[in-house]
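Bench log, entry 3. Co-assembly request; chain sequences pasted below exactly as received.
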Amino acid sequence: MRFSKEKTAGRDLDDVVPVDHPLKEMWRMFFKNRAALFGLGLLLTIILMALLGPLLYHIDPFEIVWAPLAPPGEEGYLLGTDYLGRDILAGIIYGAKATLVVGTAAALCTVCIGVTVGAVAGFYGGWVDNALMRVTEFFQVLPPLLFAMVLVTLFSPKLMIISISIGVVSWPGVARLTRGEFLKIREREYVMAARSIGSSNLRIIWKVILPNALPPLIVTATLIIGVAILFEAGLSYLGLSDPNIMSWGFMIGSSREYIFESWWAVTFPGVAIFLTVLAVSLVGDGFTDAFNPKLRQL
Amino acid sequence: MRFLATLFRRLMYAFFLLVAVLVLNFMLIHLAPGDPADVIAGEMGGATEEMLADIRAAYGLDKPIAEQLFVYLGKVARGDLGHSFYFNQPVTDLILERVGATILLVITALALSVFAGTFLGVLASRKPNGFFSHFVTVFSLLGYAAPVFWTGMMLLILFASWVPIFPVSGMYNVALNGGRLARAFDIFHHLMLPMLTLAIIYLAQYSRLSRASMLDVLGSDYIRTARAKGVSERMIIYKHALKNAILPVVTMAGLQMSYLFSGAILVETVFNWPGLGRLAFESILRRDYPTILGILFFSTFIVISANLLTDLSYRLIDPRIHAGAK
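Structure output for the full assembly:
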C-alpha cells in the first residue's frame, strides 16, 4: 500500500490510502520473502539446538565414548565418532554455543568500533575525517585472519579475546559505510534544525543522524554475523579456540589428519557451519530487500 | 608528469603504511603479557637466560622505548626481521623460501575467479530471470556460506580419495624425474585443488557482482544507441558493455587482496601447500612470534603492492580517471 502524490492530487481526501509505519511495511516485505523466512526458521532451529540440546543430549563432547573412527550410526552414535572416539553429534550440539556466541559478540564488536569511527569521521569531517580514514586504510591492508591469529595468540584464546580480535580486524568496512551515511545525512534540513535549537554534537550524532543511518547498518550487521561465524570457525580450525569449549571449527581442525579415514568427522561440523552462515545471510538478504524502498514498490 | 607525481605520492603513502605496520608489530611485542625478550624468543618461559640476554642486547631492550623502536626499524631496514628460534633460521630467509608458493596460489586463484566469474556474470546477465541467472545467485550464496577450509577438505575427499585424480598434498612429487615441462605440469597438477578451493569463494562473489554490473550497464542509453545503430549483440555485450561492467570487478579484486591472503592461510594448511600461510600456521602452533610478525609485515607489503598495482592499472582501463584525480 503506497501513498503517491500524483495519484491523489485533486482527489477527495477520503481516497487517500493510509500509510503504514515504515517498520510495519518492512516486516510485511520480509515475511513475504520465502528465502528469508526459510533462513529465519533455520536460524531459530539452530539457536534452539544450542539452548536446549545440551539439556536433552547428555554426552560430553570431549569424552571418549566409543571406539575411534566409528562410522555414522554405529552403536547408536548417529554421526559417528572422531579419531579419539568422541561423539560427533555431541560436538555439533555443544559446539553451536561457541559459534553463535562468538559470531554475535564479534559482530557486535565490529559494528561498535566501525560505527564509532565512521560516525565521528563523517560528522566532524576535515582533519578528523582525514586522520580516521588513514587509520581505517591501515587496518584494511592487514590480512584480517593473520592479524587476528597474532592477537589471539598473544592474548590467550578465550571467547572474549577471540570476539574482540575479530572485531578489531574487521571494522573498516562498517566504518566506511557509516561515514558515507553520515556525510549524506548531516546536510539534511532536520539536522540543521537540531543544530539551530542548540542540540549538542553528541545528541545530533546519537539521536538525530544515527537512527536515520540505521537501515543499511542493520543489513550489514546481519551479514557481518555470518562473516564473524566463518572467521571464528577459521580461527578454531587453526587451533585458536578456547580449549575447554567445543566448537565446530575446532572439530574440523582436530580431525584434519584423518579426513580420509573418517569423512564424517569433518563433513558434519562443516555442514553445521555452512547452514548457520547460510541462514544468517538469507535473513540478511531478506532485510536488504525489505529495507530497499525501490524493491518494495514492486 | 602528473602521472609521475601521483605515482610518487602513492609510493610515499605505501612506505608510510609499511612503517605503520612495523610500529604495530613493535607495539604488539610490548603489549603482550610477559617480558618482550621472552616474546621474541618465542618459547614463553622456556628460553635460557643466555638467549634472553642476547636478545636484550640485540634489540636494545634495556634502552628507552623510543630508542628500542628505532633499533627495531633499523634492523628491518637492513632486511633483518629477526631470528626464528624454532626453525633456527633468519625469518627473512624463511619467508623468502615460501613466498613464491603463496603468490602462485593467490594469483592463479584470483585470475581464475576474475575471468570465470566475469564470464558467468555476463552469461547470466543475458537472461536476468533465466536458469543461469538463478544458478549464479544460488551458487554465490553457497560459495559465501561454506568455510573455505571445509570446501578444500570436501574436494580432497572427492578428488583425491574417492576419485583419485589429484594428489593429496604438497606442491611437487619428490620422486619425479623429468624435464622442466614435466615438473611444471607436476606443480600445476598439485596446484589444481588448492587453487579451485580458494577461487570458489571469489568466483561466487565476482559472478554476482559482474551480473549486477552488466545488468546496470545494459540498461544505459549508450547501449540502446548501439542497438539502434544495429551493432551486433555480441559486439554490444563483449565490447561496449563489458568494458564498463568489469570496472567494479577490478576494484573489488584489488581490494580483496588481504582477504585472499587470509584464505590462503586456511587453504595452505588443508593441502600442505608450502607457502607463507602454512608457515604462519606452524609458527602460531609453536608461538614463534618473530616469524608470525615477519609474515604479518611481509604479507602487508604484498597487499600494499597489489593495491598500488590495481590503482595504477585502473587508470589504464578507465580513461575517465585522470592521473591527478583521486
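Chain B touches chain A through 49 residues (CB under 8 Å). The first helix of chain B runs from residue 2 to 31.
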